[in-house]
Write a structure and sequence with these properties.
Shape: globular
Number of helices: 5
CATH architecture: 3-Layer(aba) Sandwich
Strand content: 15-25%
Number of domains: 1
CATH topology: NADH Oxidase
Structural class: alpha+beta
Order of helices and strands: HHEHEHEHE
Oligomer: single chain
CATH class: Alpha Beta
Largest sheet: 4 strands, antiparallel
Helix content: 25-40%
Number of strands: 4
Bound molecules: flavin mononucleotide
Distance between the termini: 30 Å
């Protein structure tokens, strides 16, 4: 697990290999195992693997182009009715996204987290394209596929940003 965390990188190029239902279930099980404030579990996931839909999603944002060649895109959404505190909703969905990214890496997949900023074009377009109810907000996209690129492992421990006892 520690090795998985230390070697994960964002992967934006993918082969044509599809993701099996068995692998998908593992990714989802890891995602839904994320911690959740007050255990409200406000997250939903929309799994997209239709090529035309992937293309449409990829065109919704400026930094989402890799989704067109991905085997799958997961759109992690937060339900405001289940968790009215926006910050908690973001935290919960982020925990889910990170779990999925790490599980994907451990399973030999490549993935990248694409952020969705409220009130920006991507947010509106994704909500419309996927037919999200008004109380459900897209929180992040995960582009997934078998990797067609390798990234070097980097040591990112920044001791100068580590503070002990006080700032
Ligand atoms: C909240 C968030 C939003 C991100 N949004 C995008 C994005 O829209 N497009 C993209 O290509 N990468 C996106 N990334 C990935 C970052 O660019 C990447 O994690 C960072 O450059 C570090 O590289 P690494 O993941 O390979 O360690 C996002 C990452 C986070 C955490």
């Amino acid at each position: 697990m520690i090795e998985t965390i230390l070697t994960r990188r964002s992967i934006r190029k993918y082969t044509d290999e599809k993701i099996s239902e068995e692998v998908l279930e593992k990714l989802l099980a890891c995602g839904f195992s994320a911690p959740s404030a007050m255990n409200r579990r406000p997250f939903h996931v929309i799994v997209v693997d239709d090529k035309e839909m992937l293309k449409e999603i990829s065109e919704c944002g400026m930094y989402t182009k890799m989704i067109a060649s991905a085997a799958m895109c997961m759109v992690v959404c937060g339900d405001h009715k289940r968790q009215p505190f926006k910050e908690m909703l973001i935290n919960d969905c982020s925990a889910m996204i990170e779990n999925i990214l790490l599980a994907a890496h451990e399973l030999g997949l490549g993935a990248v987290w694409c952020g969705v900023m409220p009130r920006m074009g991507l947010h509106k377009k994704i909500s419309k394209l996927l037919g999200l109810p008004s109380t459900v907000e897209p929180m992040g996209l995960i582009s997934l596929g078998y990797p067609a690129e390798t990234k070097e492992v980097v040591n990112r421990l920044e001791w100068e940003k580590v503070h002990r006892q006080k700032w």
